[in-house]
Amino acid sequence: MKRDLHITSADTRQKAAYRKDSVTRMNDKVKAENFYQDNGDKIKLNWFCYEYANNLYSAIKSSQKLAPYVTSHKPAQIADFCLYFAKRMRRSLYLKQTGTNKNIEINAQYVYEYNPKSSRKQAQTLIEAAQTAWEETTIPCSVCPSRCLLEPFELAPMFDTLAKTGWPT
User: Fold this and answer.
1) I need a labelling partner for 123 at 20 to 30 A (CA). Which of 65, 83, 96, 113 fits?
2) Could you write out the DSSP letters of every residue in 29-97?
3) Has residue 104 been placed in a domain?
4) Contact (Cβ atoms closer than 8 angstroms) between residue 93 and residue 149
5) What is the pLDDT of residues 73-117, one digit of tens each?
């Protein structure tokens, strides 16, 4: 069944806002180079995880509930946790893509793997931040032309674009 696609001015404004937002929200506390070892790893799934890790970092830093966590951890430690969590999310994304799972699973297990001494309350609050980051990362996907979640194993030229534009990778 073929559907007519009508692009409205609202769609155009939303895409422009997405492009502007993607530059300003990417504070790059988790470096892009952590998501690839060579050119073969520069795939859209890894790009999505890179964006997710940076959104998770922002969600943690802006959460009032996580203020004690933020003050007791250095920025590099928080970034390292976000990197670990985002890489663990790849499995969940893969299981959904292959039909093994119906939904994406944001699992407290990832928190405990990274820090077995996390309290239940802290783990739950980190999961809430992870869910917020998930929403902030996936909502723009509906208008993003990259289609990272639909074509996860395609090469992502965005990694190379970062380096060409002088963005620290």
Assistant:
1) 96
2) SS-GGGG-SSGGG-BHHHHHHHHHHHHHHHHHHH-STTHHHHHHS-HHHHHHHHHHHHHHHHHHHHHHH
3) yes
4) yes
5) 999 999 999 999 999 998 888 888 788 888 888 999 999 999 999
